[in-house]
Amino acid sequence: MTLEPTxxxxxxxxxxxxxxxxxxxxxxxxxCHAFMYIYLKNPKGIRVATxxxxxxxxxxxxxEERHGKKVGHxxxxxxxQGFRHIGIGKALMExxxxxxxxxxxxEVWLEVRESNVxxxxxxxxxxxxxxxxxxxxxxxxDAIVMYRDVGTS
Length: 153
Description:
The structure is a single chain. By secondary structure, this protein is of the alpha+beta class. The protein has a single domain (6-149), classed as Gcn5-related N-acetyltransferase (GNAT) (Aminopeptidase), CATH 3.40.630. It has four helices and seven strands; from the N terminus they run E-H-H-E-E-E-H-E-H-E-E. Strands 1-2-3-4-5-7-6 form a seven-stranded mixed sheet, with helices on both faces. The radius of gyration is 15 Å and the shape is globular.
């Protein structure tokens, strides 16, 4: 049995697994309809990771216009508890960064809970730097804004 992840585009049939992982991963999870909204808005904006055909993680990104240029905005990332720390999150981030570059964006941004030290360290290892803070972004908790230049293809 291999634990090498396969990264692919989200399919509508994935919604149940994505919502299961979301609910197991976060104190304040997104409702399932939020994933459907993102998918309908931009079907390429959600990538999923599978291991032996089991969906074990996902990442959600939007391509936005900021100050007259395209940027990637990572909205959500989660990996199923038993599959963390084996490279799934890294593979998802690499896939989303490639997508952002292909979409013509030269940078990518995200927000992360100030208290989520493990995620902040992970994003730092992925080349993100802390650029600011948004007060009380997460129901009273500050968000740390992180940024990475990705160049363009």
